[in-house]
Amino acid sequence: MKRFGKLDRRHFVQLATVAAGAAVLPSAAFAGKIKVAGIYTQPIQQKWDARLHLACDAAAKAGKIDYKFSEKVANTDYVRVLREYAESGVQLIVGEAFGISKEARKVADDYPNVAFLMGDPFKPHGKNFAVFDNYIHEPCFLMGMIAGSMTKSNKIGMVGGYPIGEVNRLFHAFMNGALSVNPKVQFKVNFIGSWYDPPKAKEAAFAQVETGVDILYAERAGVVDAAREKGILAFGNVNDMNKEENGKDVVVTSALWHMESAINNAIDEVAAGKFKAANYKEWTMMAKGGATLAPYYEFDGKISADIKAKVAALQADIMAGKHTVEINDKQPKSTF
Amino acid sequence: MDWLELFISAGFWAAMLRIAAPLIFGTIGELVCERAGVLNLGIEGIMTMGAMTGWMWVFQGGSLWGGVMFAAFVGAMFGLLHAIFVVHLGLSQHVSGIGITLLASSLSYFVFRMILPDSTTPPKITPFQPINIPGLSDLPFFGEAFFSHTPLTYLALAIIPVAIYCIYRTPVGRAVRMAGENPVALEAQGIDVLHIRTGAVMVGSALMAIGGAYLTISAFDAFFFGMINGRGWICIALVIFASWKPGRALFGALLFAGLDAFQVRAQQLAGGAIPYQFFLMLPYLLSIGAMIVISKSMRYPKALLVPFRRGDRI
């Protein structure tokens, strides 16, 4: 990352002159592209951060923003990188403050002119620290309905990383969705204690299949591969696992998370000078385009028309705000 | 009782072998290094490098076995680097090992991203498939448990007798053991201690890299940063558990893997009041317990961690 050199007096005078000149210039000369920085704790190939990166990248390609990013920034380095970007004159910072909620808020207090849109489980802060989290439980509920209709053994397996709120609410929504169409369904739940250990996730899925599970909910990478090897079906999470994780003929559909509308909203607010420290929760939900159900692809003909109609009807209700899917952040447990 | 039923399911035993295989490669690799007197803490990084290079070879159109060979070659090169520092220059084995781990794991992701800069999900290859052994694979229980594995899993099991034979029954093996016990005596025999140690570290590192490659071209079909997930460190502990004996290393790896396969299954039993973290902890907890029990009979190579400088007086 570029660092500022030491500022001696002569350079300071030069800079001050330039800055004063810039202040006099009509601001229209600088209007146009908003400067946005993304700071991610994982490489951008990690699917959670990838959703943020793709949204920012799309805005940059559309010519709306100047976008820079730093990836794989450990929490211990995060505050430093946050300050460096804030100092460098970016107007909007998109990132994640999960392990450093307090510290990130302090940085936001120190840079009141920079807008922060951070992944964070707590409340927005001050005037410039907006928070988001992924609430894709609605498409998970819809997937659960399809899964409940497709299971023959009435046993569904679910493999997750850690039982935190973001994961638990998806599990519960999926389970409730399945139970809403098929009250006989039972569930196996495993957590692998890692965000990326596909061999381990695969072993957990294999163990579930041994107990008679014939549908898997793939919260983590590796589960789809287990489903393919055992010749059963799976449902995806966050990204389109049918296309992106080699899930042809295995992944029925996926609950997709889209950050485009949230990030575009933040960009527009910054451009208009009206950025608010809001909770972007609903921007990651279906009504505002933050979550969708992936296409059925080759499974289009294999899901019963009845269920497809039910899913479409409920989806319309959710979009119209007529139906609320319950958010349950408690740790899910196996039921058989 | 549910818990006991787990042990009579074929799936449990199959899972045990699958989980143990990368650990066997890593543990035998580390064991060979340490038998020659060199601690190789580069294992975690070398496994990551093996995982990346083996996968990349296949992704670029190479064969699966070619990927294994390439991973082994790259692993050996990192072993050579470690050997230059600790064998030839006599530097701290701990510091160099940690350095190799940091370098190799970061470099592997750096290279991966240089070749594949896209921000989408890591791409996939077609990994080793389970092979069907006529007659054996169709046996009830045993077929599913022991004869439904990928070739690389069988290779892991085959490594053990080969390692035992080489270490205890060949002149090279004797030289390696002497380099770890009494390098001065080895030197007096007219054998170059530095060469023996360098060779042992390179061979050991090649095995570690194959263990890493196992994860990306047999257990799974993609590479991503951090996917070794501490398996290298487990191998270090298993070497101590095995008291530097390859046969016991196999036992240790199988025990650890068996506990892991068990915890996955025990965790998902319904109505459990025990938090899932306890089950995740179980293999580590019991391994530590076992280590405490066997520590009395432990015999470590006498010249482990001691650099050999020709002509030095002892």
What structural keywords apply?
heterodimer; A: 336 residues; alpha/beta; Rossmann fold; 2 domains; six-stranded mixed sheet; five-stranded parallel sheet; 11 helices; 41% helix; disordered N terminus; B: 314 residues; mainly alpha; ABC transporter involved in vitamin B12 uptake, BtuC; 13 helices; 68% helix
Radius of gyration of chain A: 23 Å
Radius of gyration of chain B: 20 Å
First-to-last CA distance of chain B:
60 Å
**Shape descriptor of chain B:** globular
Outline the biggest β-sheet of chain B.
none
Quickly give the CATH architecture of chain B.
Orthogonal Bundle
What does this structure look like?
The complex is a heterodimer of chains A (336) and B (314). Chain A is of the alpha/beta class and 336 residues long. Chain A is built from eleven helices and eleven strands. Chain A has two domains: 32-132, 3-Layer(aba) Sandwich (Rossmann fold); 137-257 and 289-319, Rossmann fold (3-Layer(aba) Sandwich). Chain A has helices at residues 9-24, 47-61, 75-87, 101-110, 137-150, 165-181, 198-210, 223-230, 241-244, 260-271, 305-319; strands at 34-39, 65-70, 92-96, 115-119, 129-132, 155-160, 186-191, 215-218, 233-238, 251-257, 291-293. In chain A, the strands form two sheets. A six-stranded mixed beta sheet of chain A has the order 7-6-8-9-10-11, sandwiched between helices. Chain A has a five-stranded parallel beta sheet with strand order 2-1-3-4-5, with helices on both faces. Chain A is globular. The termini of chain A are far apart. Chain B is an all-alpha fold and 314 residues long. Chain B has a single domain, classed as ABC transporter involved in vitamin B12 uptake, BtuC (Orthogonal Bundle). Chain B contains 13 helices and no strands. The model of chain B has no long low-confidence stretch (mean pLDDT 91). Chain A binds chain B through residues 43-47, 50, 53-54, 57, 72, 163, 188-194, 196-200, 202-204, 206-208, 210-211, 221-222, 225, 239, 244-246, 333-336, and chain B through 9, 11, 15, 18-19, 22, 109, 113, 118-122, 124, 215, 219-222, 224-227, 229, 260-261, 264-265, 267-272, 276-277, 280.
